[in-house]
Amino acid sequence: MLIRQEMLVIKLLRNLSGGHKILMRRFTPLICIVALFALGACSASLDSSSIDSENKSISYEVNDPYEGINRKVFAFNRALDKGLFKHIVSVYKIVPQWGRDRVTNALDNLGEPINFTNSVLQGNPERAGNTFMRFAINSTFGVVGLFDVAEDWGIEYAPEDFGQTAAVWGMDEGPYIVLPLFGPSNPRDALGLVTDFIIDPMGYVLTNDQSTYRFVGNAVDQRTAYSEELDTMESTSVDFYATMRESYRQYRNAEISNSDLPRMMPIPTITIEEHKKLPKTADKSDNLANANINN
């Protein structure tokens, strides 16, 4: 099963890269890092079934067989966060909330094309239609996305990524991994991260510099939005690593099923699209249930 998944990953990346050489060159370091971690995790997990059940560690029981490595990467990410991101966030907070809201809305709007693409891939025409309408409304009446007019009109923001799409298609999440810089993940979400960068329509519209500004802007905006929650979580956690691991899984499960998202977000995790609390719906969970039944 896992070998087939690896072959599908490789085949998908080859097919996608054929017509997107410029975009592939732009994100070659990203693709190499994420793909190696994801495929390596898939390959190594093949040996987990041969481990004596009596000698299984807690790491395997929580599907974290690479906890030793993950904790080192987690420590690196935390050091980077404290040494760089927290200082950037403190400076960014000088900007009035009204101004930061405009930045958030603009970044949300830039993420709508990939949200639309994944909604289509998930076979969800209603959500795809709403996302298309949001992009059209906010890009015009919302002054290139600075104002979320669509939300005022009752059209909610619905972030979708290829990790969620793969889950709807029935792909297992695999073991928990922590990616350098990108944070908590798993092989399915790592594949989704790479795929989103490749198929994102905005990647063909924005220049290299604009894509970089967007990438950094998303990271800073998300880190700023949840700075107090993260600090509180870290100060009150007996094991911050384990808390983040569980928080990430709960958050992703909520995203995949389109249910209410927990307030705490395991960030910094850098993505293309922004993330917001979603209204509770059952459309994707129905598709996910059907995919699991078919498997």
> What structural class do you assign from the helix and strand content?
mainly alpha
Estimate the helix proportion, in percent.
55-70%
- Provide the low-confidence segments as ranges: 1-25, 31-56, 277-282
Question: How many structural domains are formed by the residues?
Answer: 1
Radius of gyration: 19 Å
State the end-to-end CA separation.
11 Å
The proportion of residues in beta strands is under 5%
Order of helices and strands: HHHHHHHHHEEHHHHH
**Could you give a short account of the major beta sheet?**
2 strands, antiparallel
Instruction: Write down how many β-strands occur, each being a DSSP E stretch of 2 or more residues.
Output: 2
Give the overall silhouette: globular
Strands side by side in the biggest sheet? 1-2
What is the mean pLDDT? 78
How many separate helices? Answer: 14
Question: What can you see in these coordinates?
Answer:
The protein has 295 residues and is an all-alpha fold. The chain has one domain (79-294). It is built from 14 helices and 2 strands, in the order H-H-H-H-H-H-H-H-H-E-E-H-H-H-H-H. It has helices at residues 2-18, 21-26, 28-44, 58-61, 67-92, 97-121, 125-140, 149-152, 162-168, 187-199, 208-225, 227-236, 240-256, 283-294; strands spanning 177-179, 183-185. Helix 5 (67-92) packs across helix 11 and helix 6 packs antiparallel against helix 7 (125-140). Mean pLDDT is 78; it is low at 1-25, 31-56 and 277-282.
